[in-house]
């Protein structure tokens, strides 16, 4: 209950932040580049594209960092207090940062990029009743909507460059739609009986809905949840019964539960392999194609297609992938 109350309070706080920053921005003379702090890489990627050279953006969480468990450091808080604006994903993805975001929002504009996404689009797993699944970036079409939210928010914050921001946001959204079309095409080549994606935790529900895959996670929606022996045994039974050939680890989650799953299936006389590492709650290394949002999702689409028996180019939609075998 306390968790849901915090979510409600944070939603209210975001509305106040939007109102607080939109009107004064009409009279403030910006100095460029201004500074923006973001939480996760996927958010930072959108903001970078939208603001261009008008602002300098910095993400608090880098490659391999789990946002469900991340607690802001003293340096993080200092950076947020010194920034001109803060962007975060929302829907309680950054659950342990709520108090800090509320505190910073008393004096700074703070924006949730998922705020514009229609509630009817959001998934709500049975075990998390009242709490939408925050992993919306797994559907590129939805992340295109998040780009629109960033364009709108930045335009209110710095209206003198609104035309540029909204053009950049539209360009980013168009690229997301192109990637979405690629995903539909290559994931449709997976044989019907093999269209099952099993990974470390429930981060791929939007991905599965977008591309027609059954998605299962060893852990729940948040990596704070623990995978019990009963849950692992149930998945072992499912994999053996349905002759699943591959499962996936995630870059920001310990592989121990997937390894236990593989061991359990192999002990039953069936062959199960790890099909590769997916990017779920964090992007790849900075400076790489996989270290961008489009590269992250391109990697996931291409890897899943190839690992589950589908057909996809080794270098992905862009021809830039380096980690898919």
Secondary structure: elements and pairs:
Elements: H1 2-22, E1 34-38, H2 41-51, E2 55-59, H3 74-82, E3 85-88, H4 98-104, E4 110-112, H5 140-157, H6 162-187, E5 196-201, H7 205-211, E6 214-219, H8 229-242, E7 246-250, H9 256-267, E8 273-278, H10 293-307
Parallel strand pairs: 1-2, 1-3, 3-4, 5-6, 7-8
Helix pairs in contact: 1-4, 2-5, 2-6, 5-6, 6-10, 8-9
The helix content, as a percent range, equals: 40-55%
For the record, the CATH architecture of the largest domain stands as 3-Layer(aba) Sandwich
Average per-residue pLDDT, rounded, comes to 88
User: Major sheet: order of its strands?
Assistant: 2-1-3-4
- CATH topology (fold) name of the largest domain: Rossmann fold
Largest sheet: 4 strands, parallel
Indicate how many domains the architecture comprises.
Answer: 2
Spell the H/E element sequence.
HEHEHEHEHHEHEHEHEH
- Percent range for β-strand residues: 5-15%
Number of strands: 8
Q: Could you please describe the fold and organization of this structure?
A:
With 325 residues, the chain is α/β, with parallel strands linked by helices. It folds into two domains: 2-178, Rossmann fold (3-Layer(aba) Sandwich); 184-307, Rossmann fold, CATH 3.40.50. It has helices at residues 2-22, 41-51, 74-82, 98-104, 140-157, 162-187, 205-211, 229-242, 256-267, 293-307, and strands spanning 34-38, 55-59, 85-88, 110-112, 196-201, 214-219, 246-250, 273-278. A four-stranded parallel sheet has the order 2-1-3-4, with helices on both faces. Strands 5-6 form a two-stranded parallel ribbon. A two-stranded parallel sheet has the order 7-8. Helix 4 links the parallel strand 3 (85-88) and strand 4 (110-112). The radius of gyration is 20 Å and the shape is globular.
């Amino acid at each position: 209950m306390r968790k849901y109350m915090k979510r409600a309070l944070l939603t209210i706080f975001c509305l106040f932040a939007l109102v607080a920053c939109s009107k004064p921005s009409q009279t403030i003379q910006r100095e460029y580049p201004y500074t923006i702090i973001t939480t996760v890489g996927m958010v930072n990627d959108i903001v970078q594209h939208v603001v261009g050279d008008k602002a300098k953006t910095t993400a608090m969480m880098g490659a391999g960092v789990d946002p469900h468990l991340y607690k802001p450091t003293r340096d993080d808080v200092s950076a947020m207090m010194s920034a001109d604006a803060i962007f975060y994903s929302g829907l309680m993805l950054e659950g342990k940062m709520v108090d800090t975001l509320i505190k910073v929002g008393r004096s700074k504009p703070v924006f949730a990029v998922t705020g514009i996404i229609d509630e009817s689009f959001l998934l709500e797993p049975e075990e998390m009743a009242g709490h939408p699944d925050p992993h919306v970036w797994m559907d590129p079409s939805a992340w295109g909507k998040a780009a629109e939210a960033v364009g709108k928010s930045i335009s209110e914050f710095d209206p003198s460059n609104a035309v540029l921001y909204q053009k950049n946001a539209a360009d980013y959204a168009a690229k997301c739609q192109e990637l979405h079309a690629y995903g539909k095409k290559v994931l449709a080549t997976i044989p019907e009986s093999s269209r099952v994606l099993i990974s470390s935790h429930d981060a791929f529900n939007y991905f599965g809905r977008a591309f027609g895959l059954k998605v299962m996670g060893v852990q729940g929606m948040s990596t704070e949840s623990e995978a019990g022996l009963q849950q692992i045994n149930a998945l072992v039974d499912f994999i053996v019964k349905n002759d699943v050939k591959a499962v996936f680890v995630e870059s920001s989650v310990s592989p121990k539960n997937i390894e236990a799953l593989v061991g359990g299936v192999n002990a039953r006389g069936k062959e199960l392999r790890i099909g590769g590492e997916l990017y779920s709650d964090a992007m790849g290394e900075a400076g790489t194609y996989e270290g961008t949002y489009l590269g992250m999702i391109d990697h996931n689409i291409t890897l899943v297609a190839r690992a589950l028996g589908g057909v996809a180019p080794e270098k992905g939609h862009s021809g830039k992938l380096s980690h898919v075998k």
